[in-house]
């Protein structure tokens, strides 16, 4: 732990925000910790409390309170991440780990994403595939580059079988079969009122459209609650971004709680507003060994939907071979 420091703002740093200036000098201190230091008056400018958006001036004196050593912060974060990951593990062997990823936790980082699964992994561990931030369920992680390579090939060759469960706003028509076509990146329009223009989504497009990719999904409506909602099982035969979400929208019944792929039909009352899409199971073959089959328990918001509509997990007995 360092002692108290009194740092003078140099001429070339004048005009910077206090929080960004601090972060540049002490990158190992988490953003939440910086906010707390300012909120409690431990981080001061010319002896006064200051907020993060304060524009500092040359010659000002910034009081820096005692800070943990960078190695301590890294070790604490690593231990915290590994503890959190260990509580999510639903399968492990000498090559693979599978976790039950919660809804709302990103798999990889981005410009505004600092907490994500990829950043929690121990050295040498690698993601085998991806899930959307708001999708829960089975996420596979390889313990080595060699394991990531063969497992990745199983996904690329479509030998890995993934089954998703969803609750839809409305009932897809027809009730079972396949949906296939081409999709490409586009932007949301404002048909449904509270959508921000320019928000990126995937859209159904004609074959030959620039940057389009073919997507195919098998699905079956397992149960319905009148015309209000349905319990749908889905097996993606390709692995495109937002594939299942777009395909359910095209079938006239987008996934409940989806903020991007919507309908003008109101969401049934009593439903949690989170995305109702769950990566229920994964089966992946292995040479010379039995295939790995993993199932993730239902998240609480989907259990709530099942209870609300009278759906049962035991109903989901789909003959996928008959749909291929």
UniProtKB/TrEMBL annotation:
CDD domains: PseudoU_synth_RluA_like, S4. Keywords: Isomerase, RNA-binding. The keyword Mitochondrion does not apply. SMART domains: S4. Residues 16-79 form the RNA-binding S4 domain. Gene3D superfamilies: Pseudouridine synthase (3.30.2350.10), RNA-binding S4 domain (3.10.290.10). It comes from the Bacteria. Belongs to the pseudouridine synthase RluA family. This is Pseudouridine synthase.
